[in-house]
Amino acid sequence: MSEDRDLVEAVLKRRPGAFERLVREHQGLCWDITYRMVRHPEDARELSQEVFLKVYRYLDRYRYEASLKTWVGRIAYSVALRHLERKRLSYVHADDDDEGYDLIGNIGDDFDLEAAFADQQTRQTLHAAIDALAPMQRTVLGLYHFDELSISEIAVITGLAEGTIKSHLYRARLRLRDILEPSLGALR
Predict the structure, then answer these.
(1) Number of domains in the chain
(2) What angle separates helix 2-12 from helix 18-38, to the nearest 10 degrees?
């Protein structure tokens, strides 16, 4: 948190290069969130710019209750969600609700995504399968596995309960297995 505090103070004091450093450190996460949600590069690019304008405008309101990374992620999520609402595009699908699912206590199911898909062709198959997931599942799965955020950090970013996030991760993994099982069989 002291690095976050130092960076925020430097930006607020308008030190040369401070805001650029903030953008550089968090632009990957911002892009990942917006692109996973909207699926259009041009929209994601514009939304990412909007996110950092909001970060700059409201940085004096950052209270260090979460990491700066999480705070920026929350803004990115909110900006992308509002974009989808303005365009009247669905983000949470009917099959994303929690009814009828038996939640497991943890999401660990011994399925290692990286180990299962080591070469380029199978990585492309994996990413195509991830793209086929419902938007909420795709976003939560990406934040957890690719951006390596914790369940609690994802909860802060999305505003969802931790149990709901675990549910989305569990169902995303099940769906990925269903999609990828034929490909895995062909590789054996």
Answers:
(1) 2
(2) 110
Whether residues 106 and 29 share a domain: the answer is no
Provide the whole-model pTM: 0.74
Cα distances (Å, whole numbers) of residue 130 to 56, 150, 187 = 32, 19, 19
| 8 A C-beta contact, residue 114 and residue 146 | no
Residue at 91 is within a domain = no
Exposed (0-12), middle (13-18) or buried (19+): which is 25, by Cβ within 10 Å?
middle
Give residue-wise pLDDT tens across range 58-100: 999 999 999 999 999 999 999 999 998 898 776 654 344 443 3
Query: Domain range holding 41?
Result: 2-86
The dihedrals phi and psi of 167, each to the nearest 5 degrees, come to -65, -45
Distance CA 31, CA 43 (A): 10
Of 64, 86, 108, which closes a domain?
86
Distances (CA, A) of 149 to 17, 97, 142, 158, 165: 27, 22, 9, 12, 12
pLDDT digits (tens, 9 = 90+) for 124-151: 788 888 888 888 899 999 999 989 999 9
